[in-house]
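Recall that a protein's primary structure is simply its ordered list of amino acids. Everything else, from secondary elements to tertiary packing, is in principle encoded there. The following example makes that idea concrete.
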Amino acid sequence: MTQLARVTRLLSRLGKKPNIAPTPARVVHQENKLRVLGYDAAKPKGRRRPPPVLIVNSLINKYYILDLTPGKSFVAYLSGQGIPTYMIDWGVPDAGDARLTLARHVNRYLHRAVEAVCADASAERLILLGYCMGGTLSLMYAALHPARVRGLVLLATPVDFNNDAILNLWTRREYFDVDKLVDAFGNPPEQLLQSAFMMMKPTKNITKYADLLENADNEDFVETFLAFDYWVNDVVSLPGETFRQFVKWCYQENQLVQGKLKLEGRAVRLERVTAPLLNVVANHDDVVPRASSEALMRLAGGREKELLAVNGGHHGLSIGKSAVEVVWPGIARWVKRQG
């Protein structure tokens, strides 16, 4: 194939919807925009039945990053290991959701999702698996509602926001008036959120296409690239009041590590997180620095705490080589030990 033909073929595929979220799922629970998706697990090996896992995604991105394409699906891997697997799809908020609070997401939406999964799986407790902001929500839930939490797995989860990562710098009070933004727009415009992440590595928005062309004959690379690129551009906002509270309480005031963050009058104290913990971090994460996540190891109150550090960046924990070869098997083994 000539270079021109190769470029033409690639261009014809850009922007078209790839085979995303390929794993069959059923809706276990639904409330407002939220859905809890259940994935049928393979028959587990051995006599011990693994506890169910509920994946809690970030509010800012679409859920299917963890069910991206065939062969790059974390939920397919977990369910294939005989682990009852569930995942939250937060949906797409509209103007009517602008006043939904952080407490509403943790104490109502997440709580009811947990109850629904426990009922569906006929289990008393489950494993919460939170990714990025979804990990912070899971951490809050585990501190406030420990009875249902058998264990906690966190991937690239921001905990200590006192650092010089670019998102932390951009959201400082002297640079960013979150009140003005939310008061003006309600839900922050999704294009604004997307552009912020794009500007973290502005040259990458150009050089990534050179990488694509260089790997044009590698169909696995191309399929993953196109699916990830589609996901990056499939933008979604989040409820404005939740955005305001998360930016103020976490990024600007760092309340979580100080034990000052309160949801409906109840303090979120990390020493009350006593469930077994697996904390997965990426060594080169420019969205959530390793130190931000690793701070939890000294703050969580449980005795069983394990840190899994891998090479790669933020999304390498979900779809990269480190994910497939290290993170996914490591999590599956850890979950099975909790049975």
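The two ends are 52 Å apart (CA to CA). The domain at 3-337 is CATH 3.40.50.1820 (Rossmann fold).
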